[in-house]
Structures are given as structure tokens and as C-alpha cells.
Amino acid sequence: MHKDIVDKLSHDDQSPATASTGQSQDVAVIGLACRLPGDNNSPEELWHFLANKYDACSEIPPARWEAYQRWDAASTRILANVTKRGYFVDGIANFDAAFFEISAKEAEQLDPQQRMSLEVAWEALEHAGIPPYSLVGSDTAVFMGVNTAGVLEDQLILSATSDSFGRVLAPKMGGSLVLHRLFPPGTLDLLILFSSCGHLFGFLGQGSYASGNSFLNSLATHRQSL
């Protein structure tokens, strides 16, 4: 934890709920799920991957160049000289909309991060042994940090105008600047986790779900190709 938060927690008095009930304020992480490069789609797979010191860096998939090739073949050659490798999550386009009771039309317009977050949240509950529908009507909080800088309007970046860039990126850049000014480097992810844990203090027996998503599809530049 960030030192400032640790110091504050260590000196704060007990919450009213703890003082009156004598119950512990311990927080238990009971369910985990993930989608990470290297085909790491579960905590167990990630642990095995890290324990064996594997590297998730790989060649850029050919499909990532398709939008550029349709627009201008020269752009592909230029970008290929910039970078040839990266970290990629497979199966971004795979989403069972019917399972989540979402129409196919609506699913096409969802941010890939939102689709992935739904899947991972469901898996985290299963990993915890909690039937997802058992939480309906409960006081379960959701805290999530996402990065939306990689989503533009439904068009190629190469064909975007300065106006269209401004409409999409200006509010995102403004929001990022606010977060940059408010939080020291490396503390925003901690804020999500701390907010989730803090919600439990004084509300023992309830639950929180914390998530972070920074998927950026920077090369497949057409929104519908995500």
C-alpha cells in the first residue's frame, strides 16, 4: 500500500461498526479472474506463467494491420519499421452476448473493455464459489478503473480529422490530466483497490468487486474491428 494510506490506517480509530460489534476489519480476497497477454486467462495460468519466467511479448498479429492495408499499403510499411512486437490479448472479439442477455446489436457497440469486464467479473464470482445471481438485490459495490483512450469514433484513425480527434480525445485527455494532478504516479490502481476495501469497513458481511482494465487496441484502428 501507499505509505500515506498505511500511516493513516494505522493511526485511525476503529470504525463504529467494529467498536460496537468487536468484529475484525480484515478483508478477504475470495475470488480472482484475469485476461492478460500470453494466453493467461485465469489466476492459475498466470501463476504458472510467472513461475516459469515466460515472456508474453510476441509478433504483431497480421489482423492488426488489416485496417491500415485497406486504407494505404504504404502506412503498413512505415508502421512496421516502428515496432514489430507487443503484448496482445486473444479473443477480444469473442463475446457471448446472449449469455449476458445483451442484444447482438448492442454488443457490437460495446467498448471491448466492457465486454471483457463482464466476462471477468462473472469468472471472479465463480472462482469465489458465489452464484452470480445470488447477488441480485444485495449491497455489493463495484469499483473499476478503465482506460478509454484507445476508442475513437467509428472510423479509421488515418481518415480522422482534427475535429473528430478533438471530440473524442479532448474529454479523455482532460480526465487524464485531472487524475494526473490528483494522484501521484502508481497510486490510481491502489485507489481502486482501497476504495473497494474501504467500502467494507462499517458494512461487514457485504462485498465489493474491484477491477482494472487498460486494454488498448492501438493497431486495429477501426472500432468495429475490435
Walk me through the topology.
Elements: H1 3-11, H2 16-21, H3 43-51, E1 58-59, H4 66-71, H5 73-80, E2 85-86, H6 104-109, H7 112-128, E3 140-146, H8 162-182, H9 188-200, E4 207-213
Parallel strand pairs: 3-4
Antiparallel strand pairs: 1-2
In summary, what is this structure?
With 226 residues, this protein is mainly alpha-helical. The protein has nine helices and four strands, in the order αααβααβααβααβ.
CATH topology: Peroxisomal Thiolase, Chain A, domain 1
By CATH reckoning, the class would read: Alpha Beta
Low-confidence stretches: 12-20, 217-226
Number of helices: 9
Strand content: 5-15%
| Strand order in space, largest sheet | 1-2
Account of the protein in words:
- The protein has a single domain, classed as Peroxisomal Thiolase, Chain A, domain 1 (3-Layer(aba) Sandwich), CATH 3.40.47.
- Helices cover 42% and strands 8% of the residues.
- The protein is mainly alpha-helical.
- The strands form 2 sheets. It has a two-stranded antiparallel sheet with strand order 1-2.
- InterPro entries: Ketoacyl_synth_N, KR_dom, NAD(P)-bd_dom_sf, PKS_Beta-ketoAc_synthase_dom, PKS_NRPS_Biosynth_Enz, Thiolase-like.
- It comes from Aspergillus violaceofuscus (strain CBS 115571).
Name the features:
single chain; 226 residues; Peroxisomal Thiolase, Chain A, domain 1; two-stranded parallel sheet; 9 helices; 42% helix; globular; disordered C terminus; phosphoprotein; phosphopantetheine; Ketoacyl-synt-domain-containing protein
